[in-house]
Each structure stands twice: as structure tokens, then as C-alpha cells.
Amino acid sequence: MNALERWRCRPMQVRILERCNECGELKDDVQKRVNRWPNVAALSCAKCFAEMTANAGDMKPTAFVRSREIS
Ligand SMILES: [Zn+2]
To answer: Highest taxon of the source (predicted)?
Structure first.
């Protein structure tokens, strides 16, 4: 089988990886996520978004921003 035939027969399953804005990693569950309360919107993976919404619920917005700058 030559290279062109191998290319045509390649597996069609494609993993789409996007970069999470929070952790900066390429993951396949990164998407635009919106949370109503606490109000959080971000392009991030599920893990980061869960942390963001948890943090936003615990803290005032200013404290939330400061803690992110420190970490
Ligand atoms: Zn992430």
C-alpha cells in the first residue's frame, strides 16, 4: 500500500482538541461554558469550569480575581 492509499484508508475518527483558557492545556472537552449562578462564562475544560464556578460561588468577584493572579 502506498502512502496515498494509506492516507485514504486512515481512521476517520478525529479528536478535536482545543486549548482551555484556564489551564492552557489541549483537551477534548473544551467548550464555551456558561453558568447562570454564580455568573461565569468561559472557554474551558469541564474540570476548570467546575473550579471556576465553585470559586465564584465562594468569593466576591474582586477576591476571585486576586486569588487567580496569585496562583
Ligand atoms: Zn482547563
So the answer is: Bacteria
